[in-house]
Amino acid sequence: MVVLSPFLSGRQQPEEENRLSLSPITNKHIMKDLRTRHTALLLFTFLLASVSLSAQTGLQQKLSEISAITETQPLESTEFSEKYVTYFTQPLDHRHPEKGSFRQRVIVAHAGFDRPTVIITEGYGAAYALKPQYREELSRLLNANMVFVEYRYFLESTPEPKDWRYLTAESSADDLHAVTTAFKNIYPGKWIATGISKGGQTALLYRTFYPDDVDVSVPYVAPLCYGTEDGRHEPFLKKVSTDEDRKRITDFQLEILKRKAALLPLFEKYCTEQEYKFRAPIEEIYDYSVLEYSFALWQWGTPVGSIPLPTATDAELIAHLLAISDPSYFTTDSTNASFFVQAARELGYYGYDTRPFKKYLSIKSGKGYLHRLMLPEELKDMPFDKTLSRKIKGFLQKNDPKMIFIYGENDPWTAAGVTWLKGKKNIHVFIQPGGSHLARISTLPEKKKEEVMKLLNEWLR
């Protein structure tokens, strides 16, 4: 920062010219005085610049040296000594930078230059990571730095215009590679990639495309689906937990459908109040919400004992359905539209078994619901590409990177989990008994938790 003193500002120049028109002796003294004052100004400016630089932390100075970062803002943190949100310039297409760029939000939290670094391969938006109290599990367990990368096409990392051609798994891996490469100049120690759900998928595909970028990968509850309607989830739901639990769930779904005449007006009123917009008639959305119910209940670990009995009132039944399977999931303006595009294009998804409810449904089949209800209109005919799932599966079969997979036993996404891989020295799978999509290292039984930490500490030496 340069500060102009009053005697060198443009406003003072005429007065200086008048002073120089005096006698030679006076003029000589004035010139000497001006030289002295000019030297003082230079010294003052230098000192100001030095103070400004010294006021910066070592991390701030290092962040300023990353050319791709165009903006850095400090964040409050109760967990780290320093925390910043930065904006990282990324090409839309890393193979063809001339096609344009966008700003990707990257949050950096500092534990120490000598500490390992956890890169969170978020599959969605990063807003929650801005909270002062936020600290990702591995970063806490390992006292590690945290580099949190918001996924392209979500929240503040959305290009304008939104050209769907550039929303691909490979591009997301390229984004992560660019961020990791830049930040390794700041954090040269061991690196761990981790993410939850779609973020876990992202950690998995990142390791596939760039196997040497990180030392360890820990995907949480990460599916590896083989199609838009993968086919493994429906059989999983027929075997999960106990016969009694599954019967109570099915009985609830059937009761909701049997009472459709009474409950549909309540359902429609709720959707109107919430200003939900759908591509299908409201009765079909009602049916889809009932079909989604069992998946959603097991995914988030809702206690089966909380399900209303068939004798419950209309108000009790509809309130429970909306609490577990909110119809916002099927709206045309869902905040998860970018995810649905990727699910339909290459990440895959799940289907519904309509057979137990066929008698009461207004829809003939649940097949194709993702394209019909949740994709942008211009993409509703987009075909699924199996290249990604084949590439990831082949990578895991042929290689043995240091990876730890965490799953919940009752989570329907575990049906498509990497639980089939056997005979690997470095790839380990841990399943929380009775666990849901909320399975973490901290939720594992104590013995399994100790085993995970032993592996991590050995790998990070």
UniProtKB/TrEMBL annotation:
The keyword Hydrolase applies. Gene3D superfamilies: alpha/beta hydrolase. Keywords: Hydrolase, Protease, Signal. The keyword Protease applies. InterPro entries: AB_hydrolase_fold, Peptidase_S37. This is PS-10 peptidase S37. The lineage of its organism: Bacteria, Pseudomonadati, Bacteroidota, Bacteroidia, Bacteroidales.
